[in-house]
């Protein structure tokens, strides 16, 4: 039994709805504070929106605590826009600290991007900032604070943009916003990680594990495997920095016990807009008994592909269409990558009939491949990596070799802040990742994705930038090219150029990398159908490439979207 089962059982009997009756029991200092009671998440439509960021009383786990929420809602209100409209959004900050809202994945003037210190000064306490821009796209997106750790404590919500012409056919449309909630203050979580990076990881190795491996592999194999990990000062069980020990996983702000209902009629086609609005959690999503047809990622149409399961990286979105053939309750089941908990909703024909969740999958350990090792040249090492994974390791995007792409050198550093290095990183586009390999289900990979529109005529890259994603996991230090944001020079892009950017992930963590202001055209194997995204997961010990048309002047943020990595694994982009 996982350590978190007791916590999960304790949390999930609670319905997680704040009620006014608790106010009488609050300390005087809280009664005197300026705060809101929690409201149910609403859908707001139109061209003018009024939002406020408030201290909001919530109860997710049976304990009354304060969130920072938009309009008193957790998740925040869903904003419905129309492609081509001019939008005005008035955001009032009722907190006693600065705040902000960033419109994730939205193409707009940099002054409206909402990143303090880069695109504007932030929203001071008691002040209102007005965002104004034209909507030039459609699809599923989201918004969140870019101030401190407010995203973790509740400042986030969904955006749905109606296209001028809808290419998809469906009968119902639901937002499914996943998040990770903790009663702890995010500053406390970050402090604990800095003191001990594995503070929330209760899946540590024991001497019993070693003897078990000897029984399975023999002493020499087991010893060699452990020796390699120890020399690299890494753990093959370091799957997630923050776990279900402190997190409760939510769908649309509701915990698993609430098991909110998404109602359908038999035979209807249901569009589910899956949004990972969590701070730190990768979710593996399945609906047992139903296939999911993936039709969009990060707001952009893709050629439909049918899967049983998909991994939703932090800040990514996927739209899927499902078609229930029977009147029954299906579990919309989202396991955390480390299998310490799950989020749950019911896709059901009757709101009063809820689905029973399946058992969580067995946790998998990281392999030497995830360390960036080429196992084909290392006999006797890490037999835990399946043959399928070794084949996946060889998959890479096809490159048009009509000319070489010059590489622009960047500053880098190699010291105690970046102790890990992928020795032989490979493209692993059809590797579903740790926890999903060989599980008997069809799992979506990046290699499955093809853009809906042809990119055959796109400009060939003028130059390439290689970014190493680096860190010291023991000291919880993160960086790019070995340099933390505070010590780094901005990246300079030239307006009108076409870039190729390659990530080499030298760490053992998945990093969801997000570039503001410009699209990232992911190379998934066919240059004629590059996949347009705003957030790209770089798997442990791997490399991955994408292309960018530099078509937006100004200053832009560029960072890992794991909230507690973001302070250092961050760059400023200046487009000149």
Short précis:
The chain has 576 residues and is mainly beta. 9% of the residues lie in helices and 34% in strands. The radius of gyration is 23 Å and the shape is globular.
Which descriptor suits the 3D outline?
globular
Termini Cα gap: 55 Å
What portion of residues is helical?
Answer: under 10%
Major β-sheet, in short?
Answer: 7 strands, mixed
Keywords, please?
33 strands, 6 helices
Structure commentary:
The chain has 576 residues and is mainly beta. It is built from 6 helices and 33 strands. The protein has helices spanning 4-12, 28-31, 186-195, 207-217, 219-231, 387-392, and strands at residues 36-37, 43-45, 48-59, 64-70, 76-82, 86-93, 102-104, 128-134, 139-144, 156-162, 172-182, 247-251, 261-263, 270-276, 283-286, 292-297, 300-307, 309-312, 317-322, 330-336, 342-348, 426-427, 463-472, 477-480, 491-493, 498-505, 511-515, 520-522, 531-533, 535-538, 542-549, 554-560, 570-575. The strands form 6 sheets. Strands 22, 23, 24, 26, 28, 29 and 31 form a 7-stranded mixed β-sheet that branches. The protein has a 6-stranded mixed β-sheet with strand order 12-11-14-19-16-17, with no helix packed on it. Strands 1, 3, 4, 6 and 8 form a 5-stranded mixed β-sheet that branches. Strand 20 (330-336) and strand 21 (342-348) form a beta hairpin. Helix 4 packs across helix 5 (219-231). The termini are far apart. 49% of the residues are buried.
């Amino acid at each position: 039994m996982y350590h978190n089962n007791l916590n999960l059982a304790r949390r999930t009997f609670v319905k997680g709805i704040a009620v006014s009756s608790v106010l009488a029991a609050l300390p005087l200092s809280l009664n005197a504070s300026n705060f809101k009671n929690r409201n149910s998440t609403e859908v707001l439509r139109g061209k003018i929106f009024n939002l406020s960021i408030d201290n909001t009383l919530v109860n997710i786990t049976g304990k009354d605590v304060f969130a920072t929420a938009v309009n008193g809602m957790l998740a925040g209100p869903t904003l419905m826009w129309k492609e081509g409209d001019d939008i005005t959004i008035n955001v009032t900050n009722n907190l006693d600290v600065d705040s902000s809202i960033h419109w994730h994945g939205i193409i707009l003037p940099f002054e409206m991007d909402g990143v303090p210190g880069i695109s504007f000064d932030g929203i001071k306490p008691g002040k209102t900032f007005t965002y104004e821009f034209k909507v030039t796209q459609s699809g599923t997106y989201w918004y969140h604070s870019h101030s401190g750790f407010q995203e973790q404590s509740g400042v986030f919500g969904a955006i749905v943009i109606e296209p001028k012409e809808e290419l998809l056919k469906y009968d119902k449309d639901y937002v499914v916003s996943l998040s990770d909630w903790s009663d702890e203050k995010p500053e406390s979580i970050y402090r604990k990680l800095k003191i001990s990076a594995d503070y929330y990881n209760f899946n540590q190795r024991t001497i019993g594990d070693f003897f078990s491996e000897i029984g399975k592999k023999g002493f020499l194999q087991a010893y060699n495997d452990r020796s390699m990990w120890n020399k690299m000062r890494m753990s093959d069980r370091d799957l997630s920095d923050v776990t279900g020990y402190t997190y409760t996983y939510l769908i649309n702000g509701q915990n698993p016990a609430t098991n909110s209902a998404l109602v359908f009629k038999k035979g209807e086609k249901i569009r589910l807009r899956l949004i990972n609005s969590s701070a730190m959690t990768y979710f593996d999503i399945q609906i047992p008994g139903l296939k999911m047809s993936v039709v969009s990622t990060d707001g952009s149409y893709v050629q439909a592909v049918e899967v049983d399961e998909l991994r939703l990286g932090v800040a990514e979105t996927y739209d899927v269409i499902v078609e229930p053939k029977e009147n029954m309750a299906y579990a919309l089941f989202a396991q955390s990558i480390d299998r310490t908990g799950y989020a749950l909703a019911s896709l059901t024909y009757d709101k009063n009939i809820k689905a029973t969740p399946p058992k969580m999958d067995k946790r998998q350990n990281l392999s030497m491949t995830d360390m960036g090792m080429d196992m084909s040249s290392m006999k006797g090492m890490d037999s835990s990596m399946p043959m399928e994974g070794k084949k996946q390791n060889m998959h890479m995007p096809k490159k048009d070799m009509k000319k070489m792409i010059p590489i622009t050198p960047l500053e880098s550093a190699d010291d105690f802040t970046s102790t890990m290095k992928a020795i032989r990183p490979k493209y692993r586009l059809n590797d579903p990742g740790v926890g999903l390999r060989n599980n008997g289900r069809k799992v979506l990979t990046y290699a499955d994705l093809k853009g809906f529109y042809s990119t055959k005529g796109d400009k060939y890259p003028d130059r390439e930038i290689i970014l190493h994603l680096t860190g010291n996991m023991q000291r919880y230090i993160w960086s790019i090219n070995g340099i933390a944001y505070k010590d780094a020079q901005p990246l300079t892009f030239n307006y009108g150029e076409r870039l190729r950017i390659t990530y080499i992930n030298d760490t053992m963590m998945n990093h969801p990398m997000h570039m503001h202001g410009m699209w990232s055209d992911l190379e998934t194997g066919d240059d004629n159908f590059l996949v347009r995204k705003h957030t790209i997961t770089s798997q442990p010990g791997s490399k991955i490439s994408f292309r960018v048309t530099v078509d937006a002047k100004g200053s832009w943020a560029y960072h890992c979207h794991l909230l507690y990595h973001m302070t250092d694994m961050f760059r400023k982009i200046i487009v000149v």
